[in-house]
Amino acid sequence: YIELDRLSTNLASRLAEKGLGKGDTALVQLPNVAEFYIVFFALLKAGVVMLNALYSHRQYELNAFIKQIQPKLLIGSRQHEVFSNNQFIDSLHEVNLSPEIILMFNHQATDFGLLDWIETPVETFVDFSSTPADEVAFFQLSGGSTGTPKLIPRTHNDYDYSVRASAEICGLNSNTRLLCALPAPHNFMLSSPGALGVLHAGGCVVMAPNPEPLNCFSIIQRHQVNMASLVPSAVIMWLEKAAQYKDQIQSLKLLQVGGASFPESLARQVPEVLNCKLQQVFGMAEGLVNYTRLDDSDEQIFTTQGRPISSDDEIKIVDEQYREVPEGEVGMLATRGPYTFCGYYQSPEHNSQVFDEDNYYYSGDLVQRTHDGNLRVVGRIKDQI
User: Fold this and answer.
1) pLDDT bracket for residue 145 (50, 70, 90)
2) Where would you find the membrane-spanning parts of this chain (predicted)?
3) In terms of CB atoms within 10 Å, which of 145, 178, 261, 318 comes out highest?
4) Distance between CA atoms of 332 and 318, rounded to whole angstroms?
């Protein structure tokens, strides 16, 4: 932790020395490496509002992000196809959208190297006075299935609350060893409770490039990982291989599953095949996060996606005429609460379609509420744009 603080301060100081600070923006695209978190905390310290692109994003998405936030700083990896040569960067120069500073992971000799900036201390003292807690800390990306993801402004206050409350619900402590095999910037992997929750609790985050089971099982054994977070498609792969490699995953105690609908038939296999507890997670980068609790009954855990983090989370389930439906009936999910956002960045037309006059956000999910207050996700209204 001292090293994480030192290295992130090095980078933040170097950026401040170059004139970056509060109100500036950054576009970051890194694979699942420790440097992702060093950069994340460095930019928070410097007050630079970042957008963390997924490593799967290509030139089309990166172009759209750059046009929206016009970053002064770009951090990428030379191993990514977009940055394997200078064609994309040169194209930004041509339209006057080139960031002032470009840092490269796995850099070439002519680049500013990200690792050099991280590892080299700055002699001059830089005062990192706190950014007001209600200001935007960074942009998350919407989970829409078509078009370019929309930008979700997350404040220090709302995100920190979500992380702290999630860490408590999930029972994290200094002994927690979390496998990060999903994309590190994804909201699930970052804050539900994700790496930030584990770091808040004083635990350990173990990185994997992807959820491929054989590599992950080896990492679990080597680092005695006791918690993992996966999407259903990855769980299926793990279930198929677990019997052959059960000795490698003996340390695993908790598997979180979220990000997509998880059939009950698969949910029931998790404790039996992987020999660990299952926790279902239904969350959104826009805010609302639901968990099955660790002491919920098996039936609740296998058949629902949990209930909200906070007693102050407000949920309505409504029909097509926006009338609330009786308990147990399927309807559209609408929510507002202490850590749910107030609108997409620079998207007034879309915001008018997904918020009502009482500031409830309509996520596009079709859900039903059980008698115990848990939510069951049954589908989507349509593909979200």
Assistant:
1) low
2) 36-55
3) 178
4) 5
What are the tens digits of pLDDT across the range 56-78? Answer: 999 999 999 999 999 999 999 99
State how far Cα 302 lies from the chain centre: 24
List the domain range (segments joined by +) for residue 113. Answer: 2-131
On whether residue 226 sits in a domain, the answer given is yes
CATH of the domain at 24: 3.40.50.980
136 sits in which H/E element: strand 136-141
Q: 323-379, pLDDT tens digit by residue? A: 999 999 999 999 999 999 999 999 999 999 999 999 999 999 999 999 999 999 999
Question: What is the DSSP code string of 39-76?
Answer: HHHHHHHHT-EEEE--TT--HHHHHHHHHHH--SEEEE
**Segment (H or E) for 362:** strand 361-369
Q: Give the length of the chain.
A: 385
Instruction: Quote the CA–CA distance of 29 and 53 in Å, as a whole number.
Output: 5
Residue 141, helix vs strand vs coil = strand
- Identify the DSSP state of 355: B
Asked whether residue 277 falls in the same domain as residue 361, the answer is yes
| pTM, full prediction | 0.95
